[in-house]
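Tokenised fold entry reproduced for everyone:
>
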Amino acid sequence: MSSEHDSTPHPLSPQEAWTEIKNGNQRFMTGDSNHPNQDFHRRNLLKSGQRPHAVVLACSDSRVPVEIVFDQGLGDVFVIRTAGEITDLSVLASLEFAVDALGIPLVIVLGHESCGAVAAAEHALDTGELPNGFQRVLVEKVTPSLLSAKAEGLHGIQDFERNHVREITKHIVDRSPEIQQRVADGRLGVVGMRYRLSDGMAEPLIDFGLDVEGVPELNAQ
């Protein structure tokens, strides 16, 4: 991982980076993936450094391989994965490294259908039973988004998954002054998405600094 600060503007704007990601997911959904930037020439080119156009905080679920579902190649996306796409200081630091040192113009939070971490938090709320060991951290990190969903009258696992993505996305923007500033001055876009195992679509749920078609009106910007 290159740690050299790159202050030059990224060749893609936040909106253009979003279009790349959106179009890649559409290709994947329809079985028409291009599998770009995966050859010997690309590997050689990347020896001198990286210039990804998106940083993705995704769940660790093996059914949601980020580069594949967005039809991206080597060096195109900077990926951070945690179960339930939960955050801590190291995750926030990695996100800030991506947007500051690498100049990435797009942050994506990617949750998914049938998320085990969200299901575990729902089970804990319903039964009072907590998992053993460090798995308890997952429940503690996910539970606030379920509580906020219930407070808004939302119910059911799909609503909980969507609200969890929204809450994590808002949390990242709220916690990081670096990300806030870049969104405010137009250098960065942030979008929260939920991947559907059923059809391969990554549905947008909330955005900051972007014009994302299809985002529901429940969009706290």
